[in-house]
C-alpha cells in the first residue's frame, strides 16, 4: 500500500499547501529557516494528514479552518524529533543531516523550543480556542513524560506494560490527539470524537510497534535511519522483549543490550539473534491486532470517503517500509 | 531596597499562593516534581509579580483570573533556565544543583519541554483566550531567537546594537509581556496596555544589564551563581564591551575572552581588567537611564498603589545584589 494513494482523500494539492504553510511558518527568522527547512520538507506528514482527514468527517472543511492547526501539528512533531536527536546523537533524520549534528546540542534545544512556540502561536492567532490548545499542550506533556520514562530506563528491559505505557505516551496519544482535533474542528459530537480518538490511539500503538520493528528489519535507504539505532542508544523495544522470551540465546542478548556502550559488532550480533526468532511475526501480529481495533472504532463514518482513507492509512501503517 | 518590601502591593499571602500553585502545577508526575520542586521554590518571581501588579491597575483582580497565568509565566521562565543550564553546564541555579548537573542534558531538555507545555495547558484550561496565548507563544519564540543569537556569537565581541538586540529578545520582551498580560487581564485600554508594556521592556533592559554586571561584581553567596560564568561560556556582555573601549589592557582582554577555553586564571584576569575600568559605573548609568525611561511610561497609573510598587521594583532592579 502506497502511502500517497492511501491519502487520495487528502488531495495532492492539500499536501502541497500544507508543505507551503509549514515552510512559511518558519520563514520569519533566517537562521531558523535555514536550519529547519530541509528537515521540515521531509517526513510522512502522518499527523497533519490524520487531522485533515478527520476534519472532513462531515464533508469539506475550509482550509482556513484546518491548515494552521495541521501546520502546528507538524511543527510539534518536528520539534520533538529535533530534541530527540540530541540524545540519540543521530547523524541523519528524514534522510538529511540532523540539526544536532550540524549545529550542536544547544542550538537543537532552542530550535525545538522555537518550533513548539510557533505551533502554539499558530493555534492562538487562528482562534482555535481553549479546547484545542488544551489538547495540544497535553499531548506535548505526555510526549515528554514518555520520553523521560524511556530515557530513565535505557539499557534495561521493560516489562510489557512498561513498554506499552511508553509507546502510548510517546506516540499513541499524539496520533489520537490529531484525530480528536480533527473531530473537534469538524464539529462532531463527543461520542464520534472519542471514536476517532480511539482509532488514532490504536493506530499509534501499531505505528510505534512497526517503527520499532523497522529498527531491526528496515532498509536504511528507505527509512532514512541507521539500523540498530534504538539498540545503540539503549532503547529496548518489542522485538527484543519478544526475542528475550523465546530465543535460545536470550542470555547473550540480554547481556549485550544492557552493556552501556555497544560496539557495531554488538549491534550486529543482537540484530542477528532477534532475526533468528519469531520477533518479526510476533510484532506484526500485535500491530495487526491494534489496527483491527482501530478499524472497529470507525462505524459512524463507514462508507464515507474519509473512513476509507483512514482504513487505507491503517493498512499502510502495518505494511510500511518507512 | 528590599525586593519583598518593594512588593508590598502583592501581599505576602499572594506570593505564598503563587508558590503553592507553582508547586501544585508540577505535582501530576512524580519525577517532574522531584526534579523541579527545588528549582521552582527559589527565584525572585519577578515575572509573575510584574504580571500580578499590572493586573491590579484598576484595583483588585480576582486570584482565579490571575494566578493560573502568573504560574504559567513562572513555569516558562523556569523552563528557559533549565534549557539554558544545558549550554552553560552550570552546576548551580537559584542556589540548588541544576537539573543538567543532576540528570544530564536529555532529561533537562524534556523537563524544560514539559514545563513549557504545562504553562500553555494552564492558559488553555483557564480560558485566557487567544490574545493571551499569542503573547505567551511570541515571547517564547523571541526568547529562543535571542538565545540562538547569543549561542551563535559566543567568544566574539558584539556591537552595542547587537548586544541590545540580544537582551531585548532574551529578557526585555519577556518582562514587557508580563506587564502587557497584566494590562490585558485588568481590562485596560490599548494605550494603557502599551504604556505598561513599555515600562516592562525598559525595566527588562535595565534588569539584564544589572544581571550582566553581577557576573563580574556580584557576591556568589547572594546571587547563587558562580562569578565569571558568562565569560567562561563565551557570552560577552556590556561590562566587557565597555572595558574594551576604555581599558589600557583592552588588547589582552580581547585576546582572553575570544579564547574558546578559558581557564580559571583567564577568568580572574579578565574580571580584574574589567574591574579596573569604569565599566560598573557605565553599566549602572545605562541601567539608570532605562529605569528612568520605564518610570515615565507610567503616568496613567500615577498615585495609585500599583504605580508605587512598580516604581519600587524599578529601584530594586538597579540596586539589587541578586
Range of helix content of chain A: over 70%
List low-pLDDT spans of chain A: none
The overall pLDDT average of chain A reads: 91
Treating each run of at least 4 consecutive H or I residues as one helix, how many helices of chain A?
17
Structural Rg of chain A:
19 Å
Give the helix/strand class of chain A.
mainly alpha
Q: How can the largest sheet of chain A be summarized?
A: 2 strands, antiparallel
SSE succession of chain A: HHHHHEEHHHHHHHHHHHH
Spatial separation of the terminal alpha carbons of chain A: 12 Å
Shape of chain A: globular
Strand order of the largest sheet of chain A: 1-2
In terms of DSSP E residues, the strand content of chain A is under 5%
Biggest interface = A-B, 44 and 44 residues
By DSSP, the count of extended strands of chain A is 2
Oligomer: homodimer
Can you lay out the helices and strands and say which pair or pack?
The structure is a homodimer of 322-residue chains.
Chain A: H1 3-6, H2 12-25, H3 30-40, H4 46-55, H5 63-88, E1 92-93, E2 96-97, H6 99-103, H7 105-125, H8 130-151, H9 160-186, H10 190-217, H11 220-223, H12 229-233, H13 238-246, H14 250-257, H15 264-275, H16 279-295, H17 305-319
Helix pairs in contact in A: 2-5, 4-5, 4-9, 5-7, 5-8, 8-9, 9-10, 10-16, 10-17, 13-14, 13-16, 14-15, 16-17
Overview of this structure, please?
The structure is a homodimer of 322-residue chains. Chain A has 322 residues and is mostly helical. The first copy, chain A, is 74% helix and 1% strand. Chain A contains 17 helices and 2 strands. Chain A has helices at 3-6, 12-25, 30-40, 46-55, 63-88, 99-103, 105-125, 130-151, 160-186, 190-217, 220-223, 229-233, 238-246, 250-257, 264-275, 279-295, 305-319; strands at residues 92-93, 96-97. In chain A, strands 1-2 form a two-stranded antiparallel sheet. In chain A, strand 1 and strand 2 (96-97) form a beta hairpin. In chain A, helix 4 crosses helix 9 (160-186). The interface between A and B is large, with 44 and 44 residues.
Amino acid at each position: 500500500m502506497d502511502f500517497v494513494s492511501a491519502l487520495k482523500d487528502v488531495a495532492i494539492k492539500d499536501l502541497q499547501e500544507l508543505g507551503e504553510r509549514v515552510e512559511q511558518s518558519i520563514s520569519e527568522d533566517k537562521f531558523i529557516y535555514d536550519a529547519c527547512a530541509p528537515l521540515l520538507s521531509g517526513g510522512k506528514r502522518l499527523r497533519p494528514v490524520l487531522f485533515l482527514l478527520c476534519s472532513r468527517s462531515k464533508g469539506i472543511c475550509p482550509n482556513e479552518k484546518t491548515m494552521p492547526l495541521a501546520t502546528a501539528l507538524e511543527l510539534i512533531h518536528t520539534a520533538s524529533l529535533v530534541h530527540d536527536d540530541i540524545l540519540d546523537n543521530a547523524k541523519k533524520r528524514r534522510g538529511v543531516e540532523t540539526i544536532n549534528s550540524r549545529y550542536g546540542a544547544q542550538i537543537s534545544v532552542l530550535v525545538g523550543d522555537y518550533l513548539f512556540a510557533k505551533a502554539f502561536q499558530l493555534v492562538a492567532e487562528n482562534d482555535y480556542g481553549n479546547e484545542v490548545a488544551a489538547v495540544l499542550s497535553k499531548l506535548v506533556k505526555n510526549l515528554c513524560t514518555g520520553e523521560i520514562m524511556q530515557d530513565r530506563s535505557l539499557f534495561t528491559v521493560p516489562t510489557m506494560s512498561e513498554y506499552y505505557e511508553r509507546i502510548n505516551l510517546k506516540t499513541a496519544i499524539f496520533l489520537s490527539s490529531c484525530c480528536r482535533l480533527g473531530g473537534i474542528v469538524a464539529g462532531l459530537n463527543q461520542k464520534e470524537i472519542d471514536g476517532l480518538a480511539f482509532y488514532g490511539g490504536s493506530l499509534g500503538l501499531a505505528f510505534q510497534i512497526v517503527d520499532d520493528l523497522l529498527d531491526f528489519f528496515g532498509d536504511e535507504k528507505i527509512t532514512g535511519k541507521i539500523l540498530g539505532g534504538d539498540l545503540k542508544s539503549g532503547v529496548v523495544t518489542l522485538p527484543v522483549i519478544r526475542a528475550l522470551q523465546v530465543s535460545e540465546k536470550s542470555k547473550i542478548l540480554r547481556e549485550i543490550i544492557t552493556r552501556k556502550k555497544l560496539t557495531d559488532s554488538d549491534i550486529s550480533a543482537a540484530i542477528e539473534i532477534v532475526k533468528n526468532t519469531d520477533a518479526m511475526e510476533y510484532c506484526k501480529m500485535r500491530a495487526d491486532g491494534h489496527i483491527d481495533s482501530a478499524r472497529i472504532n470507525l462505524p459512524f463514518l463507514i462508507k464515507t470517503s474519509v473512513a476509507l482513507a483512514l482504513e487505507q492509512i491503517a493498512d499502510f501503517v502495518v505494511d510500511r517500509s518507512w
